[in-house]
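User: I've been going back and forth on whether these two constructs are worth ordering. Before I decide, could you fold them both?

Assistant: Sure. I'll take them in the order you sent them. The first construct and its structure tokens:
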Amino acid sequence: MRRPIIGITAYVEPASWGVWQDLPTTLLPHAYTEAVMLAGGRAVLLPPDDGDTDVLRTLDGLVLAGGADLDPALYGAEAEPLTVARADRDAAELPLARAALKADLPVLGVCRGMQVLVVAAGGTLHQHLPDVLGHEKHRPAPAVYGTHDVALTAGSRIAGIMRDDLQIDCYHHQGVADPGSLLVTGRAEDGLPEAVEDPGRRFVLGVQWHPELNRDKRLFGALVDAAR
């Protein structure tokens, strides 16, 4: 049986290896691709490309990966001092998300990817959570993940996937203010949305945490199963 083909959005960053130094490189943490493979899918990287969304025709599912902030202009706000957007990713990923939603393609949004889903669904974001929440528990320090429990809505898709394991690892300074047409089905103890979904579609799920870190077969497996 053919493995479901899962596209994962990637980014372009300067990278060095061997004799090559600071070359613009399409990259993605291997944790994402390995998580998809371990869940039974075939991972394909999608570098930023704003030409069209035709690639979705060849995919069985889509992962919107984490990364930089979205441009606040996309949800009708002005940029605040600590917002650092990536225009190339925004220009590619928002059309992909909207087209995937329209086509009812299974989608998993991770961290930034959840925020992309929210903006694609007409929602808005908080640009710097410490200004809103008064703490930095969602991004304690550079390269340090915050760990906390999440409260999930009974009967939701995410609750059925996570069951009793409610501890998550997160790293973000922005968060969901208004989920748009999506349904918030998970929250941190401070009330911040941690999971969103669309019960009216086959599989549309966004999580503010990073399930790829521990190759979470429940979340990536649910995506791959839906992609079949």
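The second construct, handled the same way:
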Amino acid sequence: MTYATGLNYQCSKLFFGSPDYPTNDFLIPFVGFGLTEGGLAPQETVNPNADMLIDEAFFIHPNGTEYPVLFGGSAAATATASTGVVYGQVTLPDWLAAWQIFGIRTVYHGTVGNTYIGAYRCQRHRGEKLWAAGDLASVRALATANGPSTAAMDPDNWYNTVGNATNSQQLAYGPALVLAKGWDGRPVPLMLADSLAERQEIAASADARGNMGIWRRWFDQRDPTYGSMIPIVMGVPGSKSKQELATSATKRWDLIDTIKTTYNGGKDIWTVWADQSGRNDNNATASTWSNDKLQLVDRGKTRYGAGTRVVGITLMPTFGSGDAGRTVAGYTVATLWDVATGTIKTVNDTIKASSRYAAVIDMVPAFVSDSAPTKGPAAEMFPLGNVIGHPGNQDGVTTWDTIKLPATVPLGSRVMFEYQPGLWTSRTLIGRTDNGDGSADYKVSEVFATNVQDNATLLGHGMNSDFIHPALHGILYTVSRIPQSEKAKFAA
């Protein structure tokens, strides 16, 4: 991202979920580096061309009170470009109760024309915002007023869209991690991750605590027996096991090790690892694929000790589709991705048998459909009722961006409906206004002039259009089918 004239002082307001136990004395690192996504991920080589200049940061209590975050006693800090980490701290006057939603507000600036890094797409339904101005006093005033995000930076522009700096939701800078004292002894997983862990969602479908994806949602369930666990996610979309903890991918690990030695009395900030990564290491030779995944575990144990407890997770398959993901029968599965007879089966069998893991969660049965256990969830599995009336003015020319649906349809859903007999189309729901009568008006991200028949049959997609990443209904389906009792495997 580039600082524009009049927009080079910025303020992000972001929200996070606290653990299921009281917390206090928060440690909040900010960094001067970013990670590649895609082929080279997670190499830490996406860097600003100047230091990240933090003017001030605040912890926002659930009651609205703001407490200053201090860096060695100072309100301001500088995270050196490409290498730097600064550690902010705040101690609340009273312990924060369990299971709260708190905020972090960060003010930062740079020289017009310089570049900066961002890691957050603001989630408007959770009250997150991004303001910008040409000087510190002005951006402070915007934050104090707590009005809409600044138009030029507005997260509503390209909302829920991933692209580059000019055709995607604008990115905000904020904390790399939020930690707090108060741990009650439950397992704390460090999750080796790729996009299939959490980032197959973007913003609109995030839950009330900001969780996205299968594993963050599953870990954070408040199960009465096994409790909620908030994982430390190590990875980004595109991450490969063979590139994690390898060349140009150790700065995040140095960060958490500094916390261990400097702030946490020599104790790691995790108790166990969850190895979800490996999907992007796919290779036609099963041994190459599985070795790439397992050697990351070896590197981890070399760094942290042979006794490091690691829980393995089997890998999800990928499909093609002849009907845009409407039916399970319409999915096609290549040999590489056939979990019954193909390459991925050999890799998953290796994962389940490997002595590197103290335990393994086989998540494949929870993800695939019962009718065809080599294929994932399809839209036919998630009937949502019917479109109410029809959107637009039905001339086939005038575009429309709002559709009336049953109010039970979750925000962020990717839905499919039979717009004319035998013909289907899809939309992503990115905004919602409840009508109080069992219906809601949903804003959609795909704006077309589609002529829709009255009361069209409505389905929820199980997969996104790439057929790699599950959509919201496929995510919730999978989470509900991974037993919470599997959390017992994370206990040391």
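Notes on the second construct follow. The chain has a mean pLDDT of 96. The CA atoms of residues 283 and 289 lie 5 Å apart.
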